[in-house]
Amino acid sequence: MPDPRIKTSKFLSYVLRHKPESIGLTLDSGGWAETQVLIDLANTAGKQLTLEQVQDVVAWNAKQRFSFSPDGRRIRAVQGHSIAVDLKLEPVQPPESLFHGTAKHSLDSILDKGLLKMRRQHVHLSLDVDTASAVGRRHGELVVLTVAAGAMCRDGHEFFRSENGVWLVDHVPPMYLSLTGDG
Ligand code: HQG
């Protein structure tokens, strides 16, 4: 049987990244929700959820997708949003190369237009090929692209790093992309 925490994690991703209004929740400009309000609204909407379950998922989640505010009362997703939120991240210097896993069927379009945010607020890049591969496989036959992040940064593009180590950027023009070795 799949771990029930996966279901809870997917539900939290859905309401904290994409559709808070599906349970009548409102996020503040930083993407935060009062944890207890989220739980009450979820229960009202027929989704059984307890504070213990939420705390368990935040602590267990290997990718640390969610975090609590320092006072413990609020919760947010740390990346992956499709709704407009200001995560208040400061630009940081990226490593020379970052990676993006995607599907082969998207390759022509990506090499033509570059990496676009699509439905999310940023283009998401990974620090290593393994992580990028896991992300890319969700979309189809895997291709891993190397992003010349250092060169992009020197050319004035801003990079951000989410609390859980995902690299975020507005757009990657095609000139900074190359196919990765065995990807
Ligand atoms: C593709 C997960 C055609 C892009 C991961 C990707 C990540 C283009 C898809 C986070 C394109 C968007 C984000 C272009 C980009 N033409 N296709 N010009 N530009 N694409 O799911 O990066 O597990 O929105 O290559 O760990 O796959 O949910 O983005 O295939 O950090 O916590 O359009 O989601 O986090 O797909 O994944 P997505 P992503 P979680």
Task: Provide keyphrases for this structure.
globular, 31% helix, 9 strands, binds ligand HQG, alpha+beta, 3-stranded antiparallel beta sheet, 183 residues
How large, in whole angstroms, is the Cα Rg? 18 Å
Shape: globular
The overall pLDDT average reads 95
* Count of alpha and pi helical runs: 6
Order the strands across the largest sheet as they lie in space.
1-3-2
Question: What compounds are bound to the protein?
Answer: ligand HQG
DSSP helix fraction: 25-40%
Gap between N and C termini, in Å?
32 Å
In terms of DSSP E residues, the strand content is 15-25%
Sheet with the most strands, sense and barrel status:
3 strands, antiparallel
* Counted beta strands: 9
Structural class: alpha+beta
Low-confidence parts, pLDDT < 50 over ≥5 residues? Answer: none
Q: Please, could you describe this protein's structure?
A:
There is one protein chain. The chain has 183 residues and is an alpha+beta fold. The chain has helices at residues 4-18, 35-44, 51-60, 107-113, 129-137, 149-154, and strands at residues 33-34, 66-68, 74-77, 98-103, 123-125, 142-147, 160-161, 167-169, 177-179. Strands 1-3-2 form a three-stranded antiparallel β-sheet. A hairpin with a 5-residue loop joins strand 2 (66-68) and strand 3 (74-77). Helix 1 packs across helix 3 (51-60). The longest helix has 15 residues, at 4-18. The chain is globular. The relative contact order is 0.15. The model has no long low-confidence stretch (mean pLDDT 95). The structure holds ligand HQG. The site of ligand HQG has 19 residues, from strand 4 and helix 4.
